[in-house]
From TrEMBL:
Gene3D superfamilies: Aldolase class I, Exo-inulinase, domain 1, Glycosidases. Belongs to the glycosyl hydrolase 59 family. The gene is Galc. Keywords: Disulfide bond, Glycoprotein, Glycosidase, Hydrolase, Lipid degradation, Lipid metabolism, Lysosome, Signal, Sphingolipid metabolism. The lineage of its organism: Eukaryota, Metazoa, Chordata, Craniata, Vertebrata. This is Galactocerebrosidase. It is found in: Lysosome. Its main location: other. SUPFAM superfamilies: (Trans)glycosidases. Residues 496-669 form the Glycosyl hydrolase family 59 C-terminal lectin domain. One of its GO terms (biological process) is galactosylceramide catabolic process. It comes from Spizaetus tyrannus (black hawk-eagle).
Length: 669
């Protein structure tokens, strides 16, 4: 009995040897955790991005209680992902990956701090975790910022004013304090602009807002910071994207905080979870990065758009209420539930002898959290950059706790094993605590595992009710946009891909069309991607083949204005310019066209329609098999147009150019 008791205390074979490996043959190594020589870098938190772009688009349309459940999984402390930071896009009316997000200033004389859904999302995050850090970053800018040029730095005072207005609006209208602000996502930075941004922030009493640069690569920002002492004084964090867990010498020489300010971007299956587990540790172990931020927070956009399901969880069916808490949520919890921004990393090497890594963090008050990952190469590849080969083998790790941790007697244990062969994963399960005997304990580590060992007893895995089962988008769908005080500026389920479509109140209308949906971007924005030359918003089920789309339309632009309804639309996001489908256009000059593409180059039919601007008309597009026909105000206008491809796709509405136009009584069958 005494022998057995001693064996249990040592925790030696705690977690038996992996199958087929005798305990004697296991690779063994020892690691010391000591705070005697002072802490390592301060930990700044784990976060995720909403935006860049329109990644949370469908989330807002979920009914309760499902919407709140999703938000709890993301933000509620000691519950699910328990995120420390939320980074949002500062909408700029341009395409930023999976759609456009509206600007708070479409035009120079326009300010509205209630557009889009990022304000709402930040408030929901703060409601659950008042300590969550908030970050804002623009991808695109409205056209007036560049005064005709596709560039935001020619008038840096205008750009700084625009960004600071967003920060002030967050506080004034939503009581949100923005903690960090970025420059221009994955595009050039201007030293002059960054300095002017700092000056403008300070002038408005926003000294507490810190600046991140440049949300691209480690260089040239690190090199420029070393050369320009004034710039060095105003940049607080160097943020790099997809750094592959590595940094560069110049970045370390700046002595700045180093963040992976966008990372992951990987399909959220088990391999995505493996990617996330590996970089959460190794961004610090290999690259000294003290924060890692996932793109994206939640996959709440049509899955067939670019980078479908590259979120920490999936919520892309507001019409059914179905959502899925994917493995990356529980991988996140291994770190976030047992650390907080302001904790410090311990100064340890962090590489395991048999492959894999560990980090150790402390709050400086006696608490200790150790996170271990043993992800194998093929089970942890992120979407980018390419991952050099490495090997991981089963191993026994013995940890010696020294310094102020010598007195620790017990550690709580949380465990995940990503099951690639079996198909069964164990995610974030609490195991029996491990006893620390004379300052040490041992663990037998298999491959593709994550362990958290911690003095904290606050971890939780929610046993929540299952969400409703998945359902396809309704095959008969109507929206008359008749809503006096909409909770959001955009109609449910419409996903804008170029331009911005907003609820509109037509005060002058005699009654039939008081409440409409209006396209409001009238100049091409300062773009981040290749926005189309036409505006377009898609909706529905990408698998749809046969459909009838009906919509009332109102062209506002005289002479060369035009609008369309479309079906079998096959593309969006950053690929919106190459969108194909069946497009039924009418123009203010009284003509119509049927085209096989959004660009309007593949003309299938054309003729006279008698449509004019500033009047309401009803368009109906009917697609059955290889044939399409169109009605105007209920009467046949064209028929028997042969359609070869695409064979399926969304429905859509849009305009010929960046122009005002209105839509009403949308119906799809």
């Amino acid at each position: 009995a005494a022998l057995l008791w001693g064996w249990l205390l040592l925790g030696c074979s705690w977690g038996s040897a992996p199958p087929g490996v005798s305990a004697a043959a296991l690779l063994t190594a020892t690691y010391a955790l000591d705070d005697a020589s002072g802490p390592g870098r301060q930990f700044d938190g784990i976060g995720a991005v909403s935006g860049g772009g329109a990644t949370s688009r469908l989330l807002v349309n979920y009914q309760e209680p499902y919407r709140s459940q999703i938000l709890d999984y993301l933000f509620k402390p000691s519950f699910g992902a328990s995120l420390h930071m939320l980074k949002v896009e500062i909408g700029g009316d341009g395409q930023s990956t999976d759609g456009t997000e509206p600007s708070h200033m479409h035009y120079e004389n326009d300010e509205n701090y209630f557009r889009g859904y990022e304000w709402w999302l930040m408030k929901e995050a703060k409601k659950r975790n008042p300590k969550i850090k908030l970050i804002g970053l623009p991808w695109t800018f409205p056209a007036w910022i560049g005064k005709g040029e596709n560039w935001p730095y020619d008038y840096p005072d205008v750009t700084a004013y625009y960004i600071v207005s967003w920060i002030l609006g967050a506080k004034q209208y939503h009581d949100l304090d923005i903690d960090y602000i970025g420059i221009w996502n994955e595009r050039a930075f201007s030293s002059k602009y960054i300095k002017l941004l700092r000056y403008t922030l300070d002038k408005h009493g926003l000294q507490q807002v810190r600046i991140i640069a440049s949300d691209r690569l480690w260089e040239p920002i690190s090199f420029v910071l070393l050369l320009d002492s004034e710039l060095h004084g105003v940049v607080d964090v160097i943020g790099a994207h997809y750094p592959g867990t590595k940094t560069v010498p110049n970045a370390l020489l700046t002595k700045k905080k180093l963040w992976s300010s966008e990372d992951y971007s990987t399909f959220n299956d088990e391999v995505g979870a493996g990617c996330w587990a590996r970089i959460l540790n190794q961004n610090y172990v290999n690259g000294n990065m003290t924060s890692t931020i996932a793109w994206n927070l939640v996959a709440s956009y049509y899955e067939e758009l670019p980078f479908g399901r590259c979120g920490l969880m999936t919520a892309q069916e507001p019409w059914s209420g179905h959502y899925k808490v994917e493995a990356p949520i529980w991988i996140t919890a291994h770190t976030t539930q047992f650390t907080q921004p302001g904790w410090s990393y311990l100064q340890v090497d962090g590489h395991l002898e048999g492959g894999g890594s560990f980090v150790a963090l402390t709050d400086g008050l006696g608490n200790l959290t150790i996170i271990i990952e043993t992800m194998t190469h093929n089970h942890s590849q992120c979407i980018r950059p390419p991952l050099p080969h490495f090997s991981v083998t089963p191993q026994r790790a013995t940890f010696y706790l020294k310094g102020s941790f010598y007195m620790v007697e017990t550690l709580q244990v949380w465990h995940s094993r990503l099951g690639f062969e079996s198909g069964n994963s164990t995610l974030f399960q609490q195991l029996h605590p491990v006893k620390v005997w004379k300052g040490s304990f041992s663990l037998d580590l298999s491959v593709d595992e994550v362990y958290t060992l911690t003095t904290l007893k606050t971890g939780q895995k929610c046993g929540c009710p299952e969400p409703p089962p998945p359902q396809p988008f309704p095959s008969n769908y109507k929206d008359d946009f008749n809503i006096r005080n909409p909770p959001f500026s955009e109609a449910p389920n419409f996903a804008d891909q170029t331009g911005v479509f907003e609820y509109f109140i037509n005060a002058s209308d005699p009654g039939d069309h008081v409440f409409t949906l209006r396209q409001v971007v009238v100049q091409r924005p300062i773009t981040w991607a290749s926005d189309a030359d036409q505006t377009i918003s898609v909706i529905g089920n990408f698998q749809w083949v046969n459909m009838t789309v009906t919509c009332d339309i109102y062209i506002e632009k005289q002479r060369d204005g035009g609008v369309f309804v479309a079906g079998r639309v096959d593309n969006g996001g950053i690929y919106v310019r190459r969108t194909k489908g069946v497009f039924f256009w009418v123009f203010a000059d009284g003509t119509y066209r049927v085209t096989g593409d959004l660009a309007g180059e593949e003309i299938l039919m054309k003729g006279l329609s008698g449509v004019r601007d500033n009047a309401w008309h009803t368009l109906t597009l009917n697609i059955q098999g290889t044939s399409a026909s169109g009605l105007l105000n209920g009467y046949p206008l064209w028929e028997n147009v042969t359609i070869s491809k695409p064979s399926n796709g969304w429905a859509a509405i849009g305009t010929r150019s960046f122009e005002f136009a209105q839509f009403d009584n949308f119906h799809i069958e």
